[in-house]
Amino acid sequence: MSEEKRGFLVAVEGIDGSGKSTVARELARHLREEGLKVTLRQEPSQGPFGTRARTFGPKRPLSAALFFTMDREQSRPSLERSLRTHEVVVQDRSFYSTLAYQGSQVSLRERKELAQLQRELTIVPDLVVLLHGPVDVAVGRVRHRSRVLHPFEKERFLRQVQQEYLNLARREKERFVRIPFDQDPESVLGAAKAAVLRRVV
Description:
The chain is an alpha/beta fold.
């Protein structure tokens, strides 16, 4: 993007069952109530690359990462328009999901190359709200909404993913805010809202 003024990009991240989508949706609503012009986006898109990316399981991490990345690059012009026309863009997932989910399944060299590629092709969030907590609690929430777990929703796999998220948060302390998801919903949302308002208002 050019140096023109643009909106603030917030990515809400976390493992399946962390409440990520709910927090993203409610965060956008609450920020609007604060008088901000806000839009809500989601990754991956419903386009061909995003649809294809969803079909890959943990055993094909590089293939999945490739399609997620192509979807992200294809969606970039739309994201740029949203940032030009809104004060805040709340996004349910970002390239950090690829680094955590697919990145946790590849070698360190591949992980570094994947991270570099993401930063070259998309827009880095100004703030990442990372929801983290007991993996068994997250898996229990997933089981509650579906009897059959997707390979990405298995506890052992999600433990690896959450650890990679926490590694990313440690490396980028200024960009991440960590919020435990195993507390009452009002506290989770309140912490997320406060983190955004501290940087925007």
